Protein: nicotinamidase
Amino acid sequence: MTEQNENGDFFLKYRNETLFNDKNSIVQCLKYFDKDNDQSLDLNEFEQLLKSLFSHNGNSYQIEMAKIKAMFDFFDSNKDGKIQLIELENFWFKIIKPTLFPKNALLIVDVQNDFITGTLSLTNCPSKHNGAEIVPIINNLIDTVPFETIAYSIDWHPADHSSFIENVNNRKLAENSPIKENIKTFDSVIYEAYPNVLQILWPAHCIQGTNGAKLHADLKQVDAKTDSLGRSVIYVYKGCLSDIDSYSAFFDNCRLNETSLHNDLKKLGITDLYICGIAADVCVAYTSMDALGLNYRVIYIQDGVRGVDSDNIKKQEINLVNNGALLIKSKDVYDMVGCKDRRPELAYATFLSLARSNKV
Ligand SMILES: [Ca+2]
Ligand SMILES: [Ca+2]
Ligand SMILES: [Zn+2]
Structure:
């Protein structure tokens, strides 16, 4: 996957914000990679720059030529087949900057008793997963990785919530509901109040104030006041409205109401979200998709999630990758947060979102 890069880790010294923001640094960068001294980077020289930028301890990641070319063409504003200083400056601040200066948060989705040992335990779902297995993995990340922020999401339902099978007779079903009689757990219905959204019916779970809604007792809860790494802590409550469910930690399932999460992360300047928790194919997947839509760089920790249905977990993971998320293992997190390991996929996702909004 990686090869020794002939330029070593050229960009490491630019992880100093003052030096990075000095315009002379861009001049130096151009000079360094401009091997034929024509004051611009051709495609080959640009490729060498990318190989130095996207590397792990000086070993370059392979990047497909089509992707290199796509970025090259995008930043070559005057379309002369070369990247001049002014074009490199644009690349410097749009792509290199977030690569060298990510602000990282660990987002722990719904690691709550009811999903582990309670009424909606994954052990009773098709996957038969044991959610408790991820607790030591997450704790190890909390203990060892210098994230800027630790965020916990909490499914937090009123007792009359519309997602509970126990409450199915309390609301009017819509004309277009796929099932209207003999409704069972895990069936999907449509309620009249929200005619555009399928509601899966779960066993009652995570009712506000109950033991089942508490975070798993062994999960570390960082206290921002005493944390030796000085991290900030966010709690976000979701699914709090009776009539509409919320799988994502950002929005309800109709995207009518936004939680506090995006605002809190924005205030802290967070760019990168390392996402783990329960359930991989439901709340983790929905949260990750919304995070991508909000232009976060999304890193999904595969061994830090457990889910409802193994096939659906795989399907959701493919969907996330296709939308720009990076799937990694928890052992990779430390070097990535420390910026020793810089992945091209994350920058490419940023590039695609720039290209979509055509912000050159
Ligand atoms: Ca050149
Ligand atoms: Ca040009
Ligand atoms: Zn729920």
